[in-house]
């Protein structure tokens, strides 16, 4: 039986650690509190030398995660996705965990939660799963590292479609693109994911940990000149200092459609 804490449930099966995001009232919005509990659980699993991690929502969930907790985005004048933003901290914690993290996905995956799923090493989803990358819906200028995660996973035309429409894509398209490893029905997905995890656990944890880190380093190896970095940061600041960024947050809070003016 697992230890249940406020926003997550954790459990272990042999050398497989499981984290269940369990904040249904907020559709597992990635708040600082939820992320803190996930990263704490990952730290504990690392102490226990767990050789595979499963990250999921409760069985039968309609929403895996609603993405960044919008109410925690800064009101303006500050990068909403800076290095120490909890979402960025979670992405790095998953990418740097020295064993495979398997995303077991049921329901909708929204906004920054898409990047959390794509930061995982394998994704197994149910046929009802959908994936939506939504910064454009809010007026948020996604950050460089986040766009790199997307680009490493999704061909450019589809990445642009997802980023520019902010609409969900069905799991069939994600499977065709290779973003999702397998699709399994709800009644089979749990046994299937743990069978995958057991296959991983049976192999050399040192070899796997090093290959995971090699792949992380290689996939993030990009030459970014100071001029390029500063130009991008300047462009992003124009967005998060804009009327439209404020309008996106206000519209979300007021549960209405935003009226973007392009300034
Ligand atoms: O009205 P109450 O207080 O009960 O709260 C509602 C929602 O406001 C709340 N909630 C959220 N709170 C903060 N941040 C969120 N992302 C968020 N999502 C939901 O949870 C309560 C129940 O939501 P409700 O009534 O809408 O549930 P539903 O079952 O009808 O609909 C589920 C969703 C996920 C389809 C719906 O909640 C939704 O569309 N949520 C927003 C999804 C989204 O746009 N996420 C992107 C967040 S921004 C982000 O991730 C990055 C910054 S970026 O944009 O760059 O990707």
From TrEMBL:
The gene is scpB. It is an enzyme of class 4 (lyase). It comes from the Bacteria. The keyword Cell division does not apply. It comes from Candidatus Accumulibacter adjunctus. GO terms for molecular function: lyase activity. The keyword Lyase applies. Belongs to the enoyl-CoA hydratase/isomerase family. GO terms for biological process: fatty acid beta-oxidation. SUPFAM superfamilies: ClpP/crotonase. Its EC number is 4.1.1.41. Keywords: Lyase. This is Methylmalonyl-CoA decarboxylase. It holds the Pfam family ECH_1.
